[in-house]
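Q: Could you fold this chain for me?
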Amino acid sequence: MTGAEYRRQANDRARRRAIRALAAQMGVPYSVAARLIADPHRALLFAHREQRPFHARVRDTRDAAAVPLGRAAHLTARFPRLHTPAGRLYDGRDRRTVLAMLYAVAAHESPHLLPAPDELAWVAELGEETAVDITCAALDRAARLLLDDDPWGLWSRVEEALEAGDPRSEATITLGRELRTVSLRGSVPGARQTLDAVLLAAHRLKLPGTQISLSRRTATVVGARWPGSGPPTAYEVRLNGDPRIHLVDLGQEQQPAGV
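A: Sure. Below is the predicted structure, expressed as structure tokens.
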């Protein structure tokens, strides 16, 4: 076997592992995951994550447990931009900053939702991002629900949270600078899809970007509707070629109700 043939077979194996990982993550067939991962950049990212040694997994889970900056960076890397028939999902140049700000507000307004530092430190050493997700589930949900409130008041709440924080902390300094100098609204949809994804994964439901069949037409899941507690009540979907958002009750993937 030549060197070129060996590299080609190794790349094929890495691609197949990446497709299987994406299929398991999104709860879709292998063939659907193969189409979603056709973007070479996304394929490389998934293949790289699947091949991480244990020490790299622990490094990632330490980031995932470091609220707000580390968790925001972890989720942004974990759910990279995705091109779909419904458009680009998980998008936004400043998605990581928006996520970090949402976590800062959630922690400020609901400090009881923050896991104990020793609990987070212990879970982070397991090297399993799902374990960190379970520990941070209440905080993730609080951050997501902020996006269902008055969008115009969100930035005032971010400012209040930063003013209440330690002025010497990295999070306060970094997020304060970003809030004053960066236009963040364009990254809010991507942050919303990212939080939907991590919460839906915990319920073993379809993630934004998943293709579903709806009334004999292909639709793309782009988000979810969440009550104050419990599982989501509906998927938000877009039918291919239709920019409108439709709601699909969970377990009833039939005729959508337009909103």
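A (continued): The chain has twelve helices and seven strands.
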